[in-house]
Amino acid sequence: ADIPVITIDGPTASGKGTLADEVGKALGYGVLDSGALYRVAGLAARRAGVDLDDGDAVAALVPGLDLRFQDGHIFLGSEDVSARLRAEATGLLASQVAVHPQVRSALHQLQLSFRRLPGLVADGRDMGTALFPDAPLKIFLTASAATRAERRYKQLISKGIPANIEGLREDLEARDERDKNRATSPLAPAQDALLLDNSALGIEESVTQVLDWWQQRR
Ligand code: C5P
Question: Which positions fall inside the Cytidylate kinase domain (predicted)?
Fold first, then answer.
């Protein structure tokens, strides 16, 4: 528990991943993208033809996953699944399997194993509440739904992927509803979390804010 952790939780497309990467880089810390693990579980379940509503069956797949993390890419067996994991459709699969407590606890140990020296920046929905409750700095990152949909839209278009901004907003609001209303580890700020609304902030301003807080906290 002497290994420092900064947790960044918040809704879909609030910019957690980018912020976590930049803060990790600035401090020389490792980064845990916990959503990617739920995405892998959702993808593996769909490929195995497992019923996504069957928590036991989905959780049973987790120990057998041959996962490798390499240079920011994620491999499932010999396949680089990074691009597939980021697809909107995989995000929806992830939020479906993430409601099951069995699936969450199957991924628990794996997430804790990312806590290594010199430190960790962990992003997700329950990093400050469930995984790293002793983290000295917890951030709850938000942005308006319109801002989040627009960012996601630009991201997709810049990659040459066709997108519809209204559809994106509906998808992310549906995912947020499911994440907020599930019984186990619902999306909610930790009691001691600092709120950061980045609707009107650039990434550099957000990074500076987090680094300032980190200076004060540790
Ligand atoms: O953050 P990301 O969009 O990659 O997460 C995909 C989904 O995985 C979320 O919508 C949520 O349902 C689930 N998730 C979770 N707990 C986390 C991270 C992600 O339940 N710590």
Answer: 6-213
Total Cβ atoms within 10 A of residue 85: 23
In Å, how far are 54, 118, 141, 216 from 125, measured between CA atoms?
Answer: 22, 23, 10, 24
Using a 6 Å cutoff on CB, does residue 96 contact ligand 1?
no
CA 173, 171, 73, 97 torsion: positive or negative? positive
CA-CA distances (angstroms) from residue 54 to 96, 136, 209?
10, 36, 42
Sheet holding 73-76, edge to edge: 67-70, 73-76, 79-80
Protein residue closest via CA to atom 12 of ligand 1:
95
pTM of the model: 0.94
Q: Mean pLDDT throughout 123-129?
A: 97
Nearest to 139 by CA among 1, 7, 4: 7
Distance (Å, whole) CA 101 – CA 147: 31
Ligand 1, atom 10: nearest CA belongs to which residue?
A: 95
How far is the centre of ligand 1, averaged over its atoms, from the C-alpha of 94 (Å)? 6
- 68: Cβ contacts below 8 Å, ≥ 6 apart: 74, 75
Whole-number pLDDT of residue 140? 98
Q: Are 92 and 52 in contact (CB under 8 A)?
A: no
